[in-house]
Amino acid sequence: MACCLEHIELALDIAVDEYEIAPIMKKIEEPVSCEFCQNPALYVVGN
Ligand SMILES: [Zn+2]
């Protein structure tokens, strides 16, 4: 999931809950919006 700097901790928490492993955090390449607000996303969290 894509998220801005402000919501990175929230995204990491959700990812840990969902996947039950340490999520991978990558810097985003394309311009997309944060999933939790209107800001441009800086990171993508997943596994
Ligand atoms: Zn955000």
Give a verbal description of the structure.
By secondary structure, the protein is an alpha+beta fold. The chain has one domain. It is 26% helix and 21% strand. Strands 1-3-2 form a three-stranded antiparallel beta sheet, covered by helices on one side. The model has no long low-confidence stretch (mean pLDDT 92). The site of zinc ion has 8 residues, from loops.
Layout of SSEs?
Elements: E1 2-3, H1 8-19, E2 24-27, E3 43-46
Antiparallel strand pairs: 1-3, 2-3
Bound molecules: zinc ion.
Q: Please, what is the average pLDDT? A: 92
Give the beta-strand count. 3
* Secondary-structure element series: EHEE
Numbering strands along the chain, what is their spatial order in the largest sheet?
A: 1-3-2
Tell me the number of structural domains: 1
Rg from C-alpha positions? 10 Å
Approximate shape: globular
List keywords for this structure.
47 residues; alpha+beta; three-stranded antiparallel sheet; 1 helix; binds zinc ion
Summarize the structure.
This protein has one helix at residues 8-19; strands at 2-3, 24-27, 43-46.
